[in-house]
Amino acid sequence: MKLSQRQKNILRFLSNNFAVFAINLLFNTLRIKIKNGDNISKMNSEGKNYIVAFWHGSMGIGWYMHRNNIAALVSQSKDGDILANILKKWNYHVVRGSSSSGGKEALSIMVDLLNHNYSLAITPDGPKGPAAEMKAGAVIAAKRSNTPLFLVGIGIKKKFVMKSWDKFEVPKPFTKISVIYSDPILISKAYNSEEVSSKIKGCENLLHKLQKEALELCYIF
Predict the structure, then answer these.
(1) What's the pLDDT score for residue 182?
(2) What is the pLDDT of residue 99?
(3) At what angle do helices 137-145 and 193-217 cross, to 10 degrees?
């Protein structure tokens, strides 16, 4: 049976909204423990902007934790369309672009958002990987906007791991989640390209450490 455009639109609408409903239902069952989140809470209460960065494979929890009045960089792919719809339901200001398509324009928009009262959430190894290898976007955006960067380790005790390039993690209902924030990282505008590259590698190593600590923590609280 061939569907009309109207029927396709109805099915797309139902699919998108059911996905958001199902995700909210699942995530509302999770037991989440936050460590070292005081700096983020203080910046939120003072209306100051910041960047949070978490690995692509952990982004479900990462996006959920930072919903409301924050901007997100989402790829221009068809998969990005689905994520963009979910994030808009979570009150994100969605920016379309990535390091592989529209990267320069997206970086410019990111910096502009940071300079105009938006915080920003980034998956620094997205949209196509390699997994858990930090690209330059988060650090450069922090440098150009003089905005603090927070790295976020996310541990999920019981989960499904997808057979995708990022080994995307889907938490099982009622499982324990631990979220660990780094201290604020400031990237000086005076840094040269070599210093920026060194900072990117340092942030990558720190995010790996936080991810490991978060996984350990969710087994003991």
Answers:
(1) 98
(2) 53
(3) 120
Please, is 45 exposed, middle or buried when counting C-beta atoms within 10 Å of its C-beta (0-12, 13-18, 19+)? Answer: exposed
Instruction: Say what the pLDDT of residue 13 is.
Output: 59
Task: Report the pLDDT value the prediction gives residue 33, as an integer from 0 to 100.
Answer: 97
Q: Is the dihedral of CA 136, 138, 139, 144 positive or negative?
A: positive
Is 114 exposed, middle or buried (CB count within 10 Å of its CB: 0-12, 13-18, 19+)? buried
Do the strands 51-53 and 70-74 form a parallel or antiparallel pair, or are they unpaired? unpaired
Q: What is the CATH number of the domain that holds 76?
A: 3.40.1130.10
Q: Which of 16, 190, 26 is nearest to 88 (CA)?
A: 16
Number of domains in the chain: 1
CA distance linking residue 221 with residue 219, whole number of Å: 6
Q: Residue ranges of the chain with pLDDT lower than 70?
A: 1-17, 78-79, 97-104
Tokens of 29: 């069952």
pLDDT at 109: 82
Angle, helices 137-145/103-114, rounded to nearest 10 degrees: 40
CA distance 2 to 91: 35
Residue 152's H or E segment, with its range, is strand 149-156
Residue 55 vs residues 22, 28, 105, 126, 167: alpha-carbon distances, Å: 22, 22, 22, 8, 10
Residue 128 Cα to chain centre, angstroms:
14
pLDDT value, residue 11: 47
Domain that holds residue 172: 5-217
